[in-house]
Amino acid sequence: MKFRQIYSTIVTGVFFTIMKSAFACSSCGSSATSPLVLNPDENLKMYFGIAQNFNYMDYGVKKISETKQIPNHKISSRRILTLGIGYRTTKNSFVTLTGSFVRNQGDVNPTNVNEGFEHKYLVADPILAGRYNLMDMSLASTYRPQIQLALSYKPSLAKNMVDDDPVAVKTVGNGFHQVTGGLDFWFGMPFIQFGFAQFVTYSFDRHPDNAGRTCCGMLSSTTTQIKRTRDLQYTTVLTVGHSFKESKISVQGGAILDYIGKEVVTNKNNTTGVETSWTRNAAQSNSLFANVKYKPTFEDTFRLSYTMGGAYNGDLGYFTNANQTTFDTLSLSYERTFF
What backbone phi and psi angles, to 5 degrees, belong to 71? Predict the structure, then answer.
């Protein structure tokens, strides 16, 4: 099962950058996936965000077509508190560190929803992030974009269904150490601003060595899951927006296309030592998002965001939602710039 938080989708890295123009907008091409960025005149910034995930839906559960959508009964909602800090390292780069605390809610007994709900409090994987500015926008050229190079690292520290517990409400995170890199383009000078970003995520092999568990945390008295290998993940973000400068408000909307490569699971028989493998099919997740930002002062920024997971259902060929879990997200954040 895929646990992609809206900050799902969070895009992170080690060297992040921005431009010095008055029209600069850091990470706007990937605004839906970047919770904390530093603008050109900001050197130290704190981030505080609250998000609510709901409407969990499964695509491709056991014995059902991988493109068939049904309600998820393992988890009904997730509330996320995210804290972050960003620091400018050079004129053209900054780094950020974010961490999240999670409260999951799910059925006590997924097979009998009348037994009520249970809650579990967890810590999610932290994210180290940054960007480096490759090109600035220019007043002399309306369609010259801001281009940023992004790199990120997410260690696997959170509890996940494979390594710890087969109950979704007691887990968060996908269990992989991951590195993400990519490019972010933002055309912020036209009246209708637009941008796009392309990221690639590499997942390091993991070795659960969890005797007594096989696929998806299921119990087994004879088998140990010893290795999981995941192919590359590709995330595309498309954004359009407009800035109402006199009102100090900007609005943005767009789409997130997330393709997660197939995953190979290797199990070993505890008695014979024989290893067998099976493959989890690739997953495709499509989301739509909308952001409203309000910056009443230089120091303060508020953002309201909504993301619809599993959006635009139907047979879209390669882009059809498949083999994963989606959810909608409503989030509110506050950022404080210190200098």
Answer: -60, 145
Q: What is the pTM of this model?
A: 0.84
pLDDT per residue rounded down to tens, the chain (339 residues): 443 433 333 333 222 322 233 334 555 656 566 778 887 788 999 999 999 999 988 888 766 777 888 888 888 899 999 999 999 999 889 999 999 999 999 877 766 667 777 888 999 999 999 989 888 887 788 888 889 899 999 999 888 876 656 677 888 888 899 999 999 998 988 899 999 999 999 999 988 766 555 555 556 667 788 888 999 999 999 999 998 988 899 999 999 999 999 999 888 888 888 988 989 889 999 999 999 999 999 899 999 999 999 887 777 887 888 888 889 999 999 999 998
Shortest CA distance to 148 belongs to which of 51, 30, 243?
Answer: 30
285 C-beta neighbours (distance < 10 Å), count: 25
